[in-house]
Amino acid sequence: MIDGLADATWGRELDDLFLRIGHRLGRDDLRRRKRDYIRALLGPVGRKNGWQLAEHAGHRTPDGLQRLLNGATWNADDVRDDLQTYIADKLGEADGVLILDDTGFAKKGTTSAGVQRQYSGTAGRTENCQIGVFAAYVTTRGRALVYRELYLPKSWTDDRERCRAAKVPDERGFATKPELASAMVLRSLASPLPIARVTADAAYGQEWRFRRMLEEAAVRYVLAVPKSQPVPRFGRIDYLFSQAPDEAWEQPSCGDGAKGPRVYDWAAVQLPVIEDLLALAKAAGHESVGLSARRSGYGKPSVAAVDRVG
Asked: Do residues 187 and 210 lie in contact, with contact meaning Cβ atoms separated by under 8 Å?
């Protein structure tokens, strides 16, 4: 429930943000539409289509908002940079964490950029959708999205006419989701955001190039990997953890979930750093690599019980 004080605070913060990004749009009418559009997106609008957003903003038709999105000259990446500076000022802390993940947006047609039948973690199945890769910045002061990239499958990047029809720049080629995430991390590290750690799920953690990029950037990370992931000199991770004694497993809480406390068994093991990465590891402030595993249920550890590794 948002009371009057909270609403006034939101209003002041939005006005501050609008002042920071307003110069990216050259005309006063565009700046007003931008403000109306953002307020409508954040407002209690059931379906955020053009007509309902316009109605919430007090516009007779969605024409003005559509011109802002489709015809006005402004650079979304410049606005992103302004937003990162704003978030660094408001939420920045030395131990900030950058969280990477992708999400799907269900679509019915075939003309939206990047749309095709593909797996969506949001829906938990393969469906007609777009996939976006996102980065969120988190500290004890709050959290906010700071980066986004649209994933373009090869069915799109191999069809330049289709890309042009959807206004995809000619220089945009194919990139995997981990490759998009790598570019996002490097740009974020170069931004005003103070970032101490990066974290992501197994879709990114299993990609050795992504892990190597983080090591070369001398940034700490916590990444999930599949239990079948091989470890140099040790074999598969699930086999490694199956050798852990009972006393190695602990049950710290992951906090409350929708169905109550989330409690799992956890074990950790310290591994030696690969020689050619030792200097990089020391530069990042650590001498070794650690693995932790989560298992569901209790009792004697087993290979099948290890369901999450990071």
From this structure: no
Closest CA to 241 of 269, 271, 274: 269
d(CA 168, CA 246): 55
* Cβ neighbours of residue 175 closer than 8 Å, sequence gap 6 or more: 151, 152, 183
Q: CB-based contacts of 92: which residues, under 8 Å, 6+ apart?
A: 139, 141, 192, 193, 194
Q: Which residue has the tokens 């990139």?
A: 175
Task: Using the predicted structure, report yes or no on whether residue 299 has a pLDDT greater than 50.
Answer: no
67-to-17, 34, 36, 166 alpha-carbon distances in Å = 22, 11, 13, 16
Stretch (H or E) spanning 185: helix 177-189
The string of pLDDT tens digits covering residues 205-233 is: 999 999 999 988 989 999 998 888 888 77
Residue 309 is predicted with a pLDDT of 44
Question: What are the DSSP calls for 134-157, one per residue?
Answer: EEEEEETTEEEEEEEEEE--HHHH
Gap between the Cα atoms of 115 and 215, Å rounded = 33
pLDDT tens-digit series, residues 43-64: 888 888 899 999 999 999 999 9
Cα–Cα distance, 294 to 267 (Å, whole number): 7
pLDDT at 294: 67
